[in-house]
Design a protein that fits this description.
The complex is a heterodimer of chains A (296) and B (409). With 296 residues, chain A is of the alpha/beta class. Chain A contains 11 helices and 14 strands. Classes of the chains: A alpha/beta (296), B alpha/beta (409). Chain A: This is ABC transporter ATP-binding protein.
């Protein structure tokens, strides 16, 4: 279990991370979201011991992270980099060895990974000859081949095409199922919602929201309604308790002042019987992010 | 040694050792030497017999002296004794020269394509003959004549501190040769390998591979791993040259040029050769450490030259002083610089071989360099760790001084 207790980091007078607490358990995925400069990368850098916290502590199973623990950490940096002049094999085997995986074992595993991720080319191809997509897959393999116990992914989906995004998500889920602790940052709320068990939302270095994804959404009440039926926008806008109405395809997205208004709205729109759609949901992570971080 | 350190050393060594660039670096000087040697050999062979043939038109006793001195004068004396025939042969370029001796006068006629003739030696013999002739006229005995024409015996000897004396001419040649060789070898090797380590670190830093590496290892492991790996390459490089040199010597030891070279370097002992090699290696390590910590301040590959320029300049300082020193070995500034790390490697071995310094002084200088290398390596790891993942817009040197200031505080 990874624990961050009262973690603070200052750069001169600037507070990068303020009193952060976090618990990450094996087999769980933590999504870290926040605007640029919110403190996500700084948090990762402290966990990796690239920089020291100003105060607070980071522990792994109750003790500070040792060099032996670090070998079990897989890290995918935001800005990717590979040795262009080395072959895929030379590169991956080097990283695997540094993480304590025997070379021979890594060589066997590499064949499997290249096949599974559908990397076009041979293990003996130089990285500089690979397409961007294949180079991204190689970087992914470098971070995952030794089956890390803790996986830190800084913007893992940035720059990936939809196919590679999907491959990356599958691998994250596979690692999670193998019992790895995974923490990742992303601006894509859709992906965060899909694979995170928990999330931490940061704003200017401070945690503004933390908990299970569904639990956080529910905290905001089911104030989002999508309806389809024979209604006009004016009619819905004038309904008491309705804040906004936006045309969305064949229907309308409605924001309510409170969850209870949904019952009254339902009764009103179904007064003549059947309507094709009525869905009352908590706000999406994207909505919450905009509300809590971006717009406030 | 930790397993990770061993992996980094191996990887650094292997990557470069397998690269074309490394072998180009190692083989190009050997190839260059082989080409120069081959061309010189070819030219000599193509020239064929270069011993000049001279017709000596003179009284028979004078001709006899020249015939007897053919070897020492490096000439062939033609059988032609007739001036007209000789000049005809000279015009037809069948002779390289015609020497006409007439009493106190002598004329040596050559043509533009003549092989080189040692005129000084001919003049010397003619002088002796003239003096002999005059002595006979004055009625001197042959012993008196011999005494009269005997040249003044001036020997040049260098008195060494160990009470041994050496031939000054040979010693001067060897000293100059050693000074030039050590200066060039050290400077060139330092420049090659500082550039190599700076590029390696800059590449990993600018491409952000460093972050992936440091996620698994520590900055310390990367720092020492790279220095030791590149140092291994430099050592291998020197070993290749030493082995090639030995093989070339064994293969061509009967060659006149090699014989000449080895006699010039006869003052260089195995002990000294080992000392000089060790000194060069310590200097390379010292420069690698300095370059590593400066390279950790680089943001991208374009800054590599900016980073290694002052290092190259520092290496050149020692090289320059190694020449100045041969003319003023007892200058106090030169003496002090022979103990200053980063510079001493180009000076102390030369001072030792020229017997300006004793072995204890040379060993003290070597130990100072070694200690400086260890201290800088230890001290530098903090600077490396602090900067290898940070990117600053400041100039490299100003970053370095800021870091040194922080370290001091």
């Amino acid at each position: 279990m990874l624990e961050l207790n009262h973690l603070n980091k200052k750069f001169g007078d600037n507070i990068a991370v303020k009193n952060m607490n976090m618990v990450l358990e094996p087999g769980k995925v933590m999504g870290l979201i926040g605007q640029n400069g919110a403190g996500k990368t700084t948090t990762f850098r402290m966990i990796l011991n690239f920089i020291k916290p100003t105060s607070g502590e980071i522990t792994w199973d109750g003790h500070p992270i040792t060099q032996a623990d670090k070998q079990k950490i897989g890290f995918l940096p935001e800005e990717r980099g590979l040795y262009q002049k080395l072959t895929i094999e030379e590169q991956i085997l080097y990283f695997a060895e540094l993480h304590g995986m025997p070379r021979a074992e890594a060589k066997v595993a590499l064949t499997d990974w290249l096949q599974r991720l559908n990397v076009v080319g041979k293990a003996t191809d130089k990285v500089q000859t690979l397409s961007k997509g294949n180079a991204q897959k190689v970087q992914m393999i470098a971070s995952l081949i030794f089956t890390p116990k803790l996986l830190i992914l800084d913007e893992p989906f940035s720059g990936l095409d939809p196919v590679n995004t999907s491959i990356m998500m599958d691998e994250i889920v596979r690692m999670k199922d193998n019992g790895a602790m995974i923490i990742f940052s992303s601006h894509d709320m859709n992906n965060v919602t899909k694979i995170s068990d928990n999330l931490t939302m940061l704003k200017k270095g401070q945690v503004v929201l933390q908990g299970g994804v569904q639990e956080i959404r529910e905290q905001f009440g089911r104030t989002k309604v999508y309806i389809e039926g024979p209604f006009t926008q004016d009619e819905l806008t004038n309904f008491p308790g309705v804040i906004t109405v936006t045309q969305q395809g064949a229907g309308f997205d409605i924001t309510l002042s409170d969850e209870a208004t949904g019952h009254q709205l339902f009764d009103y729109v179904t007064r003549n019987g059947y309507i094709p759609a009525f869905s009352q949901q908590p706000p999406t992570l994207d909505d919450i992010f905009r509300q809590e971080v971006a717009l406030s | 040694m930790s397993n990770q350190l061993r992996i980094v050393i191996k990887q650094t060594f292997r990557n470069h050792f397998k690269s074309r660039g490394y072998w180009l670096l190692v083989l190009s000087p050997l190839l260059f030497a082989a080409i120069i040697g081959g061309i010189t050999y070819g030219i000599t062979k193509m020239q064929g017999n270069t011993t000049p043939t001279i017709a000596v038109i003179a009284p028979s006793e004078v001709r006899q002296v020249f015939t007897q001195s053919e070897k020492s004068l490096n000439i062939n004396v033609s059988k032609t004794t007739d001036n007209k025939t000789a000049n005809q042969s000279l015009t037809n370029e069948k002779l390289d020269g015609v020497l006409v001796v007439d009493n106190d006068k002598a004329t040596l006629t050559t043509h533009p394509k003549s092989n080189a003739i040692n005129k000084e030696a001919i003049n010397h013999i003619l002088g002796d003959l003239s003096r002999q002739q005059k002595a006979t006229t004055y009625g001197l005995t042959s012993a008196q004549t011999a005494e009269l024409i005997k040249p003044y015996d001036l020997k040049t000897v260098v008195k060494q501190s160990d009470n041994k004396s050496t031939n000054a001419e040979n010693s001067d040649m060897a000293n100059y040769g050693v000074a030039v060789s050590i200066g060039i070898i050290t400077t060139v090797i330092v420049m090659w390998y500082t550039s190599m380590i700076a590029t390696e670190i800059a590449n990993e830093k600018s491409s952000r591979i460093m972050e992936t590496l440091l996620a698994a290892t520590s900055a310390r492991v990367q720092y020492f791993g790279k220095i030791i790996g590149i140092f291994g390459l430099a050592t291998t490089h020197m070993l290749i040259y030493i082995i090639s040199g030995l093989l070339a010597y064994l293969g061509f030891k009967d060659n006149a040029i090699v014989e000449n070279l080895s006699s010039s370097f006869s003052g260089v002992t195995i002990g000294f050769a080992l000392f000089a090699t060790l000194y060069i290696l310590i200097a390379v390590a010292l420069y690698l450490v300095l370059t590593s910590l400066i390279a950790s301040l680089i943001n991208d590959n374009a800054q590599v030259q900016q980073a290694i320029q002052p290092i190259t300049f520092l290496a050149m300082v020692g090289y320059m002083f190694s020449f100045v020193m041969t003319n003023m070995p007892n200058n106090i500034a030169i003496k002090i610089l022979s103990y200053v790390p980063f510079i001493s490697q180009s000076m102390m071995p030369v001072r030792l071989v020229t017997k300006v310094e004793t072995w204890p002084a040379a060993i003290i200088s070597l130990v100072i360099s070694f200690i400086a290398m260890i201290l800088l390596a230890w001290f530098g790891q903090n600077i490396y760790a602090k900067n290898v993942l940070s990117y600053s817009d400041d100039k490299i040197m100003s970053q370095l001084f800021k870091n040194l200031k922080k370290q001091k505080n």
